[in-house]
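Session log. Operator J.P. requested a structure for one protein chain; no other inputs attached. Running the standard single-chain path with token output.
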Amino acid sequence: MGQGIPLVAGEIDAAWLEEALAERHPGVRVAEATLVESHEATNAHARLSVRYRESSGAPETLFCKLLPSESVRRQAIAGTGMGLREALFYERLAPQLAMRVPEIHGLRYDEGDGAFVILMEDLVAGHCTISEGPQSVGVDAAAAALEDLAQLHVRFEDPARREREAGWVREPDPPTDYATTRLRYALTHRRERLTDVFAELAQLYIDERDALHALWHPGPMTVIHGDAHIGNLFDDDGRTGFLDWGIINVSTPLRDVSYFMTMSMDVEERRGNEAELLRHYLDLRASLGGSAIDFDTAWLAHRVQSAYTVPASCQVVTFPEDASPRRRVFADAFLARAEAALADLEVRAALREVGV
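Structure written below.
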């Protein structure tokens, strides 16, 4: 399936695009493919404008995702398997789920070298919105999103079904020095820009990284999104959709629930509604036949899981001087959510309660 994968979006021509679209749009005939814009973050992102001789239902614009072009970064990102996991999610799992995810129009990947191209719906052209950081998921939308997450989590709690339908999804890799290196830099060079609570927990992560990661992945085990912060979500007329499935893994469902509430909601709305939303999620699990989790256990887990917002912020807290104004707005909103959750939920006390 990975033959002839373009290195960069600019290499996508009419012939390649026609072949890639044909599986989902039989009879499609592409006259011209034009690269409208492109940029690189973790992966390369591009937008294509397409002129057809016969569209067969294919859209006039496509959002394209592929590995970064620079060789060192390309090898590093390919080595994480993030792109491959995302491609496999859209190919194998997304069609089975009711949750809102981007529609996929073409997909190519190479399991050998990790190269991939995902051609998905242009959400902006479809009048969906993606937060620039400050914009948050409202309470009603959060409740509905937790329903989608509950269905995902309960579906794959059974190990036999999980292996049969999602056997390629595995437990998280052991932690590396990536976060600790950046957090150490932040404490040395950017300490004045961090709250005392965040700084304390950053040092704890540096000192007790392996113990914390062990705490963050208890049972019940299931398939989780793994990275449901505001930047990996979109709004479709009030319904929350889930983007960026590159960190999909097998872990506790409460990782998704906690991270979603702390890192996608407005701080004040999260403070006033998180207990009710957590009960809502637990009730949904029960109604779907999921394994029982009582509220007190879930609430403590929510507090413990909130410590994950510290390594999740490791790039943000280096405060890179070359960050664009747009990136700085997003980073400030991201860090504000993390710091508020750490304080509100008394996360350091929760970690002492469980022995760290």
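Operator note: DSSP finds 13 helices and nine strands in the chain.
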